[in-house]
Design goal:
The protein has 279 residues and is an alpha/beta fold. The chain has one domain: P-loop containing nucleotide triphosphate hydrolases (Rossmann fold), CATH 3.40.50.300. Helices cover 35% and strands 23% of the residues. It contains ten helices and eleven strands. It has a seven-stranded mixed β-sheet with strand order 6-7-8-3-9-10-11, with helices on both faces. A four-stranded antiparallel β-sheet has the order 2-1-4-5, covered by helices on one side. The longest helix is centred in the last third of the chain and has 17 residues. The radius of gyration is 18 Å and the shape is globular. 45% of the residues are buried. Bound molecules: adenosine-5'-diphosphate and magnesium ion.
Length: 279
């Protein structure tokens, strides 16, 4: 990669203790360039969230390395505020995990703006961020519990973006939104991070949305990346049989784009034995 990547993960392994231990991520390499949106897709349990937590430093990396803007990401024990100050923001599937139930919405977005300013980045006004995610300024004085899941997620997204991160890691950020707004919110996230030169790691099982917003797509399966490349290439000419099976199962045209049910154990072994296609 010619310009310095905002995120450079190499041969990352994430293991959970147990008998036997679970190898959730089994040697994954992935980069995100400034202004780039990289999507991570794969069925439930393929290791997407474990990788996401590892790259932001809230999950221990058992092997491999993670670098953020050329500095190592220090694993474990990092409090969210400390992570934010490095320029990384996260949005999770459940907005309740990103929002403080006891703080007013406007104050939480103001926290994001303060984080941006603490890093020397430009911060705009609370109302402006609310407007960008499609909420009226009047919501600023209210508390998170007064909103629907979809509205809460918009607030969480506004708070994360207001901090002007260099890297936004979004793990299933649109799942809580109603179907009619999923694509527009995902596109908005992509545009807002790209306009500030930030990178985004976007995790979703909605392939139709991924196709619209991601520059590159990584297909994860059983802890490994089986295929990666430019989104349009992966979509129009998938090389790995697993990706082909995945895309073939999407209802046409442009249906919900859901990833199909987990394959049988036999296929599972087979797919992992076929060499990955990464370009
Ligand atoms: N905290 C945990 N402790 C033990 N196993 C876990 C933990 N989190 C995830 N796993 C296991 O790791 C694997 C990958 O999970 P996850 O990263 O959540 O995948 P995805 O986000 O793709 O659904 C699964 O087998 C899951 O059961
Ligand atoms: Mg997950």
């Amino acid at each position: 990669m010619s310009e310095t990547a905002v995120l450079d993960a190499q041969d990352v392994v994430v293991r959970y203790p147990g008998n036997p231990p679970v190898v959730a991520v089994n040697g994954v390499s992935l980069t995100v360039a400034p202004g780039e949106t990289v999507a991570l897709v794969g069925e439930s349990g393929s290791g997407k969230s474990s990788l996401a937590r590892a790259v932001v430093g809230i999950e221990k990396v058992a092997a491999g390395s993670v670098r953020f803007r050329d500095a190592p990401v220090t694993p474990l024990g990092i409090r969210r505020r400390a992570v934010a100050l490095t320029g990384i923001q996260m949005v999770f599937q459940d907005p309740s995990t990103s929002l403080n139930p006891r703080r007013r919405v406007g104050d939480q977005i103001a926290d994001g703006i303060a984080t941006a300013r603490a890093r020397g980045a430009e911060g705009s006004r609370v109302e402006e961020w609310l407007h960008r995610v499609g909420l009226p300024a009047t919501v600023a004085t209210r508390f998170p519990h007064q909103f629907s899941g979809g509205q809460k997620q918009r607030i969480a997204i506004a708070r994360a973006l207001a901090a002007r991160p260099s890297l936004l890691v979004a793990d299933e950020p649109i799942s809580a939104l109603d179907a009619s707004t999923q694509t527009s919110v995902a596109a908005l996230m992509r545009d807002l991070v790209a306009e500030s030169g930030a990178g985004m790691l976007f995790i979703s099982h909605d392939l139709a949305v991924v196709r619209r917003i991601a520059d590159r797509t990584f297909v994860m399966y059983s802890g490994r990346v089986l295929e990666a490349g430019a989104t349009e290439r992966v979509w129009s000419a998938p090389q790995h049989p697993y990706t082909q099976a995945l895309l073939a199962a999407i209802p046409e045209p442009d249906g919900a784009g859901r990833i199909p049910v987990a394959p049988t154990t036999e296929e599972r072994i087979l797919w992992s034995e076929i060499p990955p296609v990464v370009d």
